[in-house]
Every structure is written in C-alpha cells, then in structure tokens.
Amino acid sequence: MKRSRHWGETKPRWEWEKTKKVVVFAIDDKLGILTPKVIRWMQELLDEFAIPLDVMKGNLEYSTDLALVKKTLDQSIRENKIDWKEFEEKLRKVRYMGRTPYGVVILVDKVKYQFYDYKIPNEKRAYYGVGDDSGYVILRHTHKEAVRHEFAHMLGLCHHVPPRPDCIMNWECPTPSFCDDCKRKIAEMWQDEIEGR
Ligand SMILES: [Zn+2]
Ligand SMILES: [Zn+2]
What we know:
single chain; 36% helix; binds zinc ion
C-alpha cells in the first residue's frame, strides 16, 4: 500500500515509534501457535539493521488491548473483507485515547479474512498482508517473506515502482532480501535509534 513517508525522510516520527515497542496479537487463539515464528522473523529483520525495537506477544500480556484490537477489526469489515484503511483510521482513534500506543501486528485467519480491494493504481490487491508506517501490520500469511515485507512497510519502506526483481519490497516478494537502496533508506530512517540518541 501507499506510504505516507517519502524515501529517506526521517521526520516527523509516528507516535508508535517513540514507544520503541511492537506487539503481536493472534486475533484467533488458534493462530497463537504462529506468533513465536512471526516474532522471530521480525526480530531477525530488526537485528539485521540494529534497530532497537522490542517485539513481544500480546494475547495474554495485553489482553484488554487485544479485545480492543479485535473490536477495531470487527468494525473494519466491509463486504466480508478487511477494510484496512478503515482499520487504520479506527486504530488511530483508539490511540488518540491513549490505547495501543505501540506498533500493532495482527495475525488473522486467511480462510476467514481477505482484504478489501481498493484498486489503487500500480498496486495489486493485498494478499499476504498489509503494513503501514502509521504503525500496523495485518498478516494473513506468516511465511518469512510476508512477515519481512509487511514489517518493512511498518518500518517505513515502500514498494518499488517500477518493480525490482532483486528486492523483497515488491508485491511478489521475489526474494527475502532487501536491495541496497532499501537497506540504505531503512538505515537513514532509523539512524537516531540505531545510534542510540
Ligand atoms: Zn507491500
Ligand atoms: Zn528495495
């Protein structure tokens, strides 16, 4: 999906980034089994760039927030599909009230949920997941490439237009790795945190 922050631009920071925390919620309890794997892929990406964010599971630790995130998702269903723009808007309101201030990653049942198709020019319909640097990721699929791709959106990377076959930041996620441009951009965007300022 479209990014609101331009390439290489480091400011302004989103509020969630200031918490330096990302919480992973399994929307259906049976998906909880996937949470450790998702956290591992996310942590691996953070380690790759030395970004000091904490990634943690939230179902038990933030159970009241989970209820709120579930409710927010339920209210963002359109024609039986996830309206991810609506979800973002509602999540923003929730945060305005001081709840779920951190980055939110939710795992949803891929059989139960599809994504609403916004028919954005140059973009295919979201399939594996969606992610946005306003601080949320929704994952239908949890293989390594999907997790890295969507989490990288949350960290501020956009898609390549035109596509680059040597980078994960394309719709098809042709490779698990980032191209040199993306590596440089992510390092620039997180420079202050990486250097511990
Ligand atoms: Zn994407
Ligand atoms: Zn790239």
